[in-house]
Structure formats: C-alpha cells, structure tokens
Amino acid sequence: MLISGDLYKLGRDEVLHRCVLEHERLAIMEEAHGGSAGGHYVGDATTHKILMVGLWWETLYKDCKDYCKVCDHCQRIGKPGRRDEIPLHPIPSAEPFEKWVIDFVGPIAPATCRIGSHYVITYTDYLTRWIEAAPTKDYTAATVARFLWENIITRYGCPLSLTNDRGTHFLNETVRILLSEFMVAHHKTTPYHPQENGTTEAFNKILSHTLTKICDVGRQDWDDKVSAVLWAYRTTYKRLNKATPFQLVFGTEVIFRLNLCFLLCE
Q1: Given 134, 200, 215, 242, which residue has the most CB atoms within 10 angstroms?
Q2: What whole-number distance in Å separates Cα of residue 123 and Cα of residue 101?
Q3: How far is residue 150 from each of residues 16, 90, 146, 157, 206, measured CA to CA in Å?
Q4: Which residues are CB-contacts of 185 (< 8 A; sequence separation ≥ 6)?
C-alpha cells in the first residue's frame, strides 16, 4: 500500500514495513550490522534488526547473509556462533531479575590507558538475558560487592539468588555479608555442572569477540567500547526468548539510529 508516497508491506506480524529502495540498502545493512547497535552479529540477527525498525525489501535475508560474509571485521576475527548465545541447559526463572549470574572476563590485554582496566565484571539476568557489565582494575571481593550494590540491587531490587563459580573473589566474607543483609541465596557452580554458568559464559565469549572487532589498533581503548557491546547485545533478538532483552525488560522495542535515518517518526 502507498502511504505519503512510500510503498509499505504488511508483514506476518501485522506490522507495516516500508519497502526500501535499492540505493538505500547498503547503508541500512552497514548500520544494522556494524553501526552503534550492530555488534557484528551474524546475518539473521542483522536481518531482524532491520525488520524491527520497520524496513523490508524482497531479498533482505539473502542480502544480509551475503553482506555479513564479506564484512572485513568479521572475516578477520570470525563470528560467535549460535552456541555462544544459547546455553545447552538454560535454567528457568519465573520473573525478571530474580536470578542473576556473575562472572569476570579477563585479564584483557593491554591494560587501558584511561583507568588501567584489566577485567570486565558481568551480571546476567537468567530470564531476560539482560546484561550489566563494567571494566574493572581487579577482580576482588570489594569490586564484586560494590557492583552488586550499585548496579544490581539499587537498580533492579533484591534478587532471590546469585550464582557464580567457586573463585575466592565470590566466596568470601565481604560478599557473604552483603548477600545475607538482603537475603539473597548464594549458589556456587561445580566443574561437573558447567551448564549452571552457561548463560554468562555465552555472553563472555561474545564480549571478547566483539571487542576485538570494534577496538582501535592496540586495543587500549577497549574499556570505552564495553557500553557499545552491551547496547548491541541487549537489542539483538534471542531465539531462546523470541525477543530482545531490551523488549523483555521495558515492554517495547528500542529506537535505533536506523529509525531516525530511514523512517519518518509518526
């Protein structure tokens, strides 16, 4: 149908998608794949982001697949597979932010120029796959407790449980006192049941992979790129939940730069 001179197609989801002109397609794929919220994900994830903002063309799926295959960054670094996004044995959770899993990524070389970061601390919500993460200089008990208080409890409320491996930075008196104060059950994974920590391990691989793609030569700015990795991950469709983490948390989809560049705000 024609709306204000533009051709639209009614999708299977009963949503109108603007039919994209041929000369616009490359710029759209560049933004959806490698732009601010792209993250250099595989072709179907790039396709979904384009559909999510209300754009469509007949060869969209094939074009995105072909574009991702020849992406220079992806050719050099490779891409995280679907196995890196979905743990083999996901642990169910009834409500958002009830169950979190915590981990550290690192050491990441080199140490950053800005604050001397060597690690990234990550917290993953089991149900929505929402991630909170930040660069850190160390992986101490104080860092774990401070991040849990400042970035989890004061933002999302008291979790019912927290899961982590058996590192001493997690199993100590500082963390025990904080969890006890807010009545948070503390679960520890074992080497014999790695699937218990599979949710955060999946993100850790994607984090390392994506940082390598988007950092400058020398990687001394990698701590400045963590927010970009989070932005891309939170707004990428997850097959397990059939939605993006952003949509599950906020009940609506994010407004991308694609929305503003290629669609009229209604």
Answers
A1: 200
A2: 6
A3: 41, 27, 6, 11, 24
A4: 160, 161, 162, 179
